[in-house]
Amino acid sequence: MKKLCLLGLFVTLASQSVVADNLPTPMENKDAFISHLMKQMTLEEKIGQLRLISIGPEMPREMIRKEIAAGNIGGTFNSITRAENRPMQDAAMRSRLKIPMFFAYDVIHGHRTIFPIPLALASSWDMDAIYRSGRVAAKEAAADSLDITFAPMVDISRDPRWGRTSEGFGEDTYLVSRIAGVMVKAFQGSGANAADSIMASVKHFALYGAVEGGRDYNIVDMSPVKMYQDYLPPYRAAIDAGAGGVMVALNSINGVPATANTWLMHDLLRKEWGFKGLAVSDHGAIFELIKHGVARDGREAAKLAIKAGIDMSMNDSLYGKELPGLLKAGEIEQSDIDNAVREVLAAKYDMGLFKDPYLRIGKAEDDPADTYAESRLHRADARDVARRSMVLLENRNQTLPLKKSAKIALVGPLAKAPIDMMGSWAAAGRPAQSVTLFDGMTRALGAESTLIYARGANITGDKKVLDYLNFLNFDAPEVVDDPRPAQVLIDEAVKAAQQADVVVAAVGESRGMSHESSSRTELSIPASQRELIKALKATGKPLVLVLMNGRPLSLVDEKQQADAILETWFSGTEGGNAIADVLFGDYNPSGKLPISFPRSVGQIPTYYNHLSVGRPFTPGKPGNYTSQYFDDTTGPLYPFGYGLSYTEFSLTDMALSSTTLNKTGKLDASVTLENTGEHDGETVVQLYIQDVTGSIIRPVKELKDFRKVMLKAGEKKVIHFTITENDLKFYNAQLKYAAEPGKFNVQIGLDSQDVKQQSFELL
Ligand code: BGC
Prior knowledge:
Layout: H1 2-16, H2 30-39, H3 43-49, E1 51-54, H4 61-69, E2 75-77, H5 82-94, E3 102-105, H6 118-124, H7 127-143, E4 148-149, H8 173-188, E5 199-205, H9 224-231, H10 233-240, E6 245-248, E7 252-253, E8 256-257, H11 262-272, E9 278-280, H12 288-292, H13 298-308, E10 313-314, H14 319-328, H15 334-350, H16 379-388, E11 391-395, E12 408-411, H17 418-422, H18 437-445, E13 452-454, H19 463-469, H20 486-498, E14 502-508, H21 527-538, E15 543-548, H22 556-561, E16 564-567, H23 575-583, E17 649-656, E18 660-661, E19 666-675, E20 681-691, E21 702-711, E22 716-724, E23 730-731, E24 737-738, E25 742-749, E26 755-762
Parallel strand pairs: 1-2, 1-10, 2-3, 3-4, 4-5, 5-6, 6-9, 12-13, 12-14, 14-15, 15-16, 18-26
Antiparallel strand pairs: 7-8, 11-16, 17-19, 19-22, 20-21, 20-25, 23-24, 25-26
The structure holds beta-D-glucopyranose (BGC).
The site of beta-D-glucopyranose has 6 residues, from loops.
Protein name: beta-glucosidase
Family: Belongs to the glycosyl hydrolase 3 family.
Domain Fibronectin type III-like: 683-752
């Protein structure tokens, strides 16, 4: 019905326009449809399409609607209900050409139901679970009238000082690339034009995770080989999976800001990779070209960005203002603007909005009576995915699982922390709907619960840090201190511990500590909480640390002090229930680290797949004149791929089907996995390959495949991996992607360090 009306409209307008061709608008042919529409657009209307505007609570709605009706806005972000967005779409339908708006939002790890943070999702190594989280997010977001998300965030992060480590999928190119594709498919479902899908806009293109020193917004300086080999593949994987959009990074790359980078945007993204979708700037990034020092003023910034191929200006202040003058002065071409407009319109077409501008807004009478209704949440999915994402780091003397009959003291500033449970970028999630650890354990223990609770410590005792974390939340601070003196809190917790059989301490970071603009110089648990841990340890009671944090922490002392450590990250709406499931053994943990945990900040970077060096350190041998730090143990505290289970697994009988591989052949690598323990459980069998000699230095190993396998207690299974020439390819010094003949080591393990090895020769 709507489709017909719209067609009718374009026919009428076309017959009135200068380019009257009297042909029906060819809705089914995207290119022809857009060309036809563009012929009717004025310059102002075209530039309007390039403006993406944030709808804050303070924004005068009437003014926004006027601007939309005048054709001056192409899309908005941060307005997230049907009731909010419908009047804006109505305004667009009153505009001369009735070009629909799109509505965007940062749907990163859930929309109303919050799933674990992306780093946690990656820890599951479970592609079905990750897909499920993205699909639910898309359905919920689409049901709230959203058309596009600025996700997935696939920046490789190898420096945990960077606060946005939480928002990505870790340090490994292969794992992050796999997840990138899964997330795009999950968001876009049967197609970005489906009513229950949202378009994915992969970010931050490119290399944002490599900001120098892990300091947010800092520069990136990187060799082309490293880019192509390690950092670019995840973006490419998202695009190959069909991502309709790309968000351009805030950082510079080798001296040129991404937002003004014609090599990045034209040569690589569009020419080399064939990307045909929408390129959106990050928030205010065009203006920031002045601060980067590549544009003298706003006019030059707008020129550089449009020339580089930034289609849409997020939180625009410059495209609307400067593009008309730049065109008039001949400093930019009409085609610069037209190319960008074409991509915005194409994205709207792909989102199904020309066929039905109300595709996701729906009819007013169908609006949910209560946006926050429990019935709109997907709690069962969130709980299941959350428990799959937790990593058991320590479990001495089988401290875990806990017996429900035990008397448990629950302490720590994160035990009752509904906001932190959700993690940062928690979209439309509501703290009031998240299950805290206290709630989850209480529920699991039932009516007879003897849980003893004491806060024990504040998140931090450092006023400066506290003020920083609450900077944006003056009305209702996120991190609320217990005003009692630190020692009083500790004494109370110690008393609780003394009355209990076992102590569970929920410690780590508040969610704001692992967020945009939250780079840290230390990776330890804040001092106030470390004092608490020390005091708890001194009670002699078995101590379980439940960690909540958004990045690897350095846990050297805690590894000694705690009997068990469960890394739960920020686990989302159902976090408390999911953690309780793991603590009480209703779920056997199966997560593996997607990023190495360093012993100290000084060790960074500790990523496992580093390049070979001429003087490698050999464990067990003296370190002199080898590559290491002499004042600490070499290697990470917990390696990439590491994670324990309540059961035991063994790997035996690793074998290769041949000691040679032809360029067109296949090699089978197999290993026997056995559950030698007493519980059923899942683990991740990981395949690593080392190219021993190459024309350029190669990594000491690289993840190439993995399987998440469920085995009953006592069960055994032979796991097979297929290796082909494709798995051996890399970018050489000329950036040619090819495999080189020679020796390859194949390693199979349950983490990246403890592996079995066999070798073969590529002929
Ligand atoms: C972030 C982006 C985000 C945007 C809109 C920026 O500050 O860097 O990742 O999509 O804000 O919220």
